Each structure stands twice: as C-alpha cells, then as structure tokens.
Amino acid sequence: MTVLVAGATGTVGGIVVRRLAAAGVPVRGLTRNPDAVLPSGVEKAVGDLSDASSLAAVFAGVSAVQLFMNWEDQGAVVDLAVRSGVRRIVLLSSDGTPDEALERRVRDSGLEWTILRPGEFAANKIDIWGPAIRAGGPVREAYPDVVGVPVHEADIADVAVAALTGDGHHGRTHLIRGPEALTHREQIRLIGEAVGREIEIEEVGHDQARQDLIATGFPEEVADHILHYFVEWVDAPPVPVSLEPITGRPGRTFAEWARDHAADF
C-alpha cells in the first residue's frame, strides 16, 4: 500500500519521499505545484491541504500519510484519511508552537497516530544568517551567546520514516532536537569552518536585530516569532535529545549540517 507524503518538495518532506522510494516503499508525494519535479520512483499528486474536497483521489489506496502543520484547518483532511481507509497518520507538528487542535484531531481519529515535534531547524540558519555570510560581511546578532539545539532536517525525516513504516510509534509524541547544545557564536564558527573562512559577529540590540530580519525579507510577525525564542532561551535554554532509540543512529551534529550546506552560505 502507498504512503502519502504532504509537502513532498519541502525541507523535510523532500527527504522523506527520497528515503521511502530508495527503500522500495510505494510513495505518493503531494505538492501544490503542478510543475514540481519529484525523485524517480515517487508518484506526484497535485493538491492543497486547505481544500480536502479536492484530495479524494489523492488518498485512494493510501495506507499511511504524513501531514505537516501549516496553520490551516486540516481537520477535514484527517476525516478524509479516515474515510479513505488510511491506517496510519504521522503529523509533523512543532516543539515551540504546536497546533494543539490539529494534534487533538489526529489523536482522536482512531488511526495509528504519531506526532513529531521538531525544535529549531538548523536549516533556518540559511535564511537568518545566510544573506550576511554570502555577502562576506559580519553576522549581526543580538543574542550571540544564547544556547540552541538545532536539528538536522535529515534527522527529522529519519524519525518520520520510522514512524510511517515501523512499529512501536503508535500513540507516541516524539520530541526531535539536535544532539548538542551550542551558542549562536559556536554555530557561526562551525559554519565558518565549513565554508573555509572566519565569520565575524557584530553584536546589536534586539530592535536592530528585528529590523535586520525584516530587511532580509522576514514578515514582522515571523521576525518577532524568531526573536521570541531567543529571548526565551536566555533563561531557559532547550536541551539536546537523543534520537538513536528511534532512528538507530546518533543525531547529526551541527558541524555535519554546516558541511552539508556549505554551498548555501
């Protein structure tokens, strides 16, 4: 039976469909973009999670589905999964601001459910710090010594694949974080090592950091959302989580993530 992955071209979904296809699992990738190119062996389905009425054919023959939290009412999509005979549902939620209503809908669906709550995506650094690093200038930071535990997107995908295809995940909520606690200063140093040059840090105030994020292209509410966590972590830093009991391997370090993404900087 087929596994349906929503957000098949996304940061995590793109890896999940590749992992499933490589393992010989029949996989259908859901995307909003009719021109999207998916990996070999992945069936493309075009549709929008915000319009469940358009997805009946997409869910036909599906045994397991991965959804992702996108701040739209997906309750109707969960209901469609139930009506379509889906047996297992995996929801990619969030550690910081989970969609509690959607999580509740998934838990109450009667399906085999797993909720994934990833913390800070390491990939966010590409958008936050990437423009300054690519320009060759210093990274302007309001909280250079705040501690985070960024997680490699490949580790999130590995947990998702385990939950979609393996046993022992039903009724569980998996917290997904990186394997090590690092300050922003340490993270920037590791990116510098990956790209082969030292990256300077210019310390600025909170308001200036907010203006910098907005000038980079972040909407105001997203800039505030990002900085909110940095402020929160000053007094209550997140702690690492071992994913090895789920994936069978240690979590990827930030240095490994930086090497994997050196070209993005």
From TrEMBL:
All residue ranges annotated as the NAD(P)-binding domain in the record: 7-165
Coiled-coil annotated spans: none
Highest taxon, organism lineage: Bacteria
Pfam families: NAD_binding_10 (PF13460)
Protein name (record): Uncharacterized conserved protein YbjT, contains NAD(P)-binding and DUF2867 domains
Lineage: Bacteria, Bacillati, Actinomycetota, Actinomycetes, Pseudonocardiales
